[in-house]
Amino acid sequence: MRRVTLFVNGSPRNGKVVAVYGTLSDLLSVASNKLGIKATSVYNGKGGLIDDIALIRDDDVLFVCEGEPFIDPQTDGRPHEELTGSHTDWLTLNVGGRYFTTTRSTLVNKEPDSMLAHMFKDKGVLEEARFFGIDSLIEHLEIAIKNSQPAEDHSPISRKEFVRFLLATPTKSELRCQGLNFSGADLSRLDLRYINFKMANLSRCNLAHANLCCANLERADLSGSVLDCANLQGVKMLCSNAEGASLKGCNFEDPSGLKANLEGANLKGVDMEGSQMTGINLRVATLKNAKLKNCNLRGATLAGTDLENCDLSGCDLQEANLRGSNVKGAIFEEMLTPLHMSQSVR
To answer: With a threshold of 0.70, does the pTM exceed it?
Structure first.
C-alpha cells in the first residue's frame, strides 16, 4: 500500500496522509473528504499534472486543486491573482499624508521581520493588534483563526476502507500499515499475512479467525482486542501491548519451524487458553494474571518471563526454558509432563 501526503493547492500547511488505492477518481474522492474541497486534479511538487494513479509513488507529496492552475507552495499559498501580478497584489499606503504604492510581495519578502510584513501576512491583523497592544481584540482574533483551521482527522480506518486497500494491493506486494489507527475495527476472518502493522493502533479490534501469519506487530497496541482462533504462525510481536486481549485457541506453531516472537510483550491478563505455542519466544514478557490453561508450550522460551499468578493448568512445558522466570503464585495443576526444578530458578 502506498501512502502520500495531500495539501490544498499552493498551501504547505495542514496536510493529510492518505493511502493510495484503486483509481485516480478514488484518490480525488478521498482528497475531497480529507481536505474539505471539491478535488478535480492532482499535481506533484513541481507542478506536473498527474493523470494516472500509476504515476504516484510511495511518500509522494501532492497538491490537490479545484480546477484552478497549480500554485507553487514556495509562495506561501498566495492567491493566483497575486502570482500573475494582477492589481490585487498592489497596495497604496498613506504614510503621514504621502501615498506610496508597492506590492504585497515586496512588503512581505523584502523585510520579513518588519511590522509591515507581519501586517500583510496571513495573520496580519492579529500581529497588528499585538503590536499596538489591543488586548480586547487579540483574544477574538486568535479564536477566529483557530476555528478557521481544518480539524485534524484522527478517525480510525474502517473495515470497508481496509478491505479496499487489500483488494487494490497485489498479493506479492508488501502492505505497510505502520502507525495507522484501526482502533475498534472489525478485521475478523481477513487474510492479513505478511502485513507490517508495526506501532499500529489495533486496540479493541476484532481479529478473530484472522490470518496473521508472519505479520509484523512489533510495538503495536492490541490491548483489549479479540484474536480468538487467529493464525499467528511466525508472527513478530516484540514489545507489543496486548494487555487484556483474548487469544483463545490461537495457533503460533509453524510446521516449517518458524517461531513466533513475543519477546518483551505486555500480556497481562490475556486469555490464551488452548493455544498451540510450541517453540514460542516469550522471553522477558509479562504474563501476570494470564490464563494459559491447556496450552502447548513445548520448547518455549520463557526465560525471565513474569508468570506471577499465571494459570498454567494442563500445559505441556516439556523442554521449555523457564530460567529466571517469576512463577510466584502460578498454578501448575494437571501438568502433562513433569516440571523439572532445573527449568526455573525462582
So the answer is: no
